[in-house]
Amino acid sequence: MAITLLGFGKIGRAIYQDMISHTRDTQIDVYDPFGRFPEQAPSRVKFHAKDPFTGTNRKEIFRKGSVIVSALPAHLREELFLYAESNGSRLVDITFGNDPITKEKLSSRGDFIIIPDAGLAPGISNLLVGHLASKFEKVESIRIFVGGVPDRQIPPLNYKVVFSMDSVIDEYTNPCTIISGGRKKVVEALTGLEDVEFAGKKYEAFFTDGLRTLVHTMSSVENMFEKTVRYRGHCERVRLLRDLGFFSAEKIEIDGSGVSPRSISEAVLEKALGNPECGDTVLLRVIAEGRENGKMKKYTAEMIDSSPAGSELTSMARTTAFPASILTLMLHNDTGKLGKLSGYVPVENIGYDLRAFQSISGELAKRGINISIS
Fold this sequence. Notes:
alpha/beta
């Protein structure tokens, strides 16, 4: 059976490259109406410059048991899940939309499999949370620190755009759900600022809305949050832009035309922060505390991945795409390493299974993405 890839942007292209590198005979169908497809590809690959959601294409893609991996834009996620669920398909999705999976969806079962939020964070972060949580009788606290930074500081924002600027601005503006004192709490993005250190270098971290399904699956913890990591000083400067209204979607009139400050900011920042002369590094740390054999204990999982300037894939693309590719290939090969899956399957639930965790982390290691646990 073929694997279908939906979307051929930065992350979709990285998923494609990984699947080509780790399969021999598997047919791969790629759908993207706006995709810039390579001129040369193996004969087992078919590119379709078509909308995957139109009638004929939809029926061909979303079939019972078909294996699909999606890197489509966030606004298409609801439709994507509906088609996969109603047709009994097996779907891995990396989309980070503003519509987190509900508790009701997570409890639904059927002959479909949907693994949402299967990228970096959420994604690898959730896998690590599940694995660390499995060590405890009771989990008390989970702290996630994650971010992508350039390989050196570049004033004024000390940042390099490695994914959609639209999604970056979402991180700075979306309200953040955390768990504090055993209760869900909504806090403002760019708050909760603290200093952190990775490999001897000093950074800062602030709240962003990255817990997603963990809010439901780990709801019994006392404290849990995700914070985004950046070079020091970034938060204050970005907060200034946000508070002045540069990220507002509300249109204002300029020379007789209505335009949103956000759309202008996206275009300006996308160009200004491209910084092709810099490589990028992804930093991830998950700290879990709880009771093991009746005593309080702490475990820390850490991952640092870097790509130098000029690399075919950025570190952000690698660490976002490869988990999705690995999960897709495991579903396709049906080796049983993921255990018995049904319905909506959060990545943290997969992490609870030791065999599944070892299989996925082992595949990441083969691709040069290494995780340490202490």
